[in-house]
Specification:
Helices cover 56% and strands 11% of the residues. It has 140 residues and is of the alpha+beta class. It has a 4-stranded antiparallel sheet. A hairpin with a 2-residue loop joins strand 3 and strand 4. Helix 2 packs antiparallel against helix 6, helix 3 crosses helix 5 and helix 4 crosses helix 5.
Length: 140
């Protein structure tokens, strides 16, 4: 699912042969590859979490890690996503997402404020082997 305009490029053997002439270009391509690999590992780890509320919390903390801003109240992150889009991201349906978001709000862990979300407390630890894989893939 694409939430905004997207550009794709096919990088076949011909492109790699040309890119080999410029080490800086190859470096950029491999950095992108690493980011994509990490994103896939994160998606796998998130999908293995039990409970939609936990998957949503993991998703929001990952977004906060990338785009959040720390305030005295907690970490704020601007994500103008619908409950249906959040459902696609965590592998659930919109009604279940709505119930899980209400439970998180009742516990004070995640509160919506317009297009912003306020996260309180500490990020959850990821369960399972996928969580271990992400931890080992993160740069030191």
């Amino acid at each position: 699912m694409v939430h905004e305009e997207l550009w794709l490029a096919v990088l076949d053997r011909r492109v790699m042969a040309v890119a080999a002439r410029w080490p800086a270009l190859t470096d950029v391509l491999f950095r992108r590859l690493f980011r994509r690999t990490r994103a896939l590992a994160f998606s796998l780890a998130m999908s293995q979490q039990r409970g939609i509320d936990r998957r949503l919390l993991v998703l929001f903390w990952e977004a906060a890690n990338r785009w959040g801003r720390v305030t005295p109240d907690g970490v704020r992150v601007r994500l103008p996503l619908t409950h249906q889009t959040l459902g696609h991201l965590v592998g659930s349906r919109r009604p279940s997402v709505s119930v899980a978001l209400s439970a998180l709000a009742a516990r004070g862990e995640l509160v919506r404020d317009g297009n912003e979300w306020l996260l309180r407390g500490a990020p959850p630890a990821l369960d399972g082997a996928a969580g271990d894989a992400i931890a080992s893939a993160l740069p030191d």
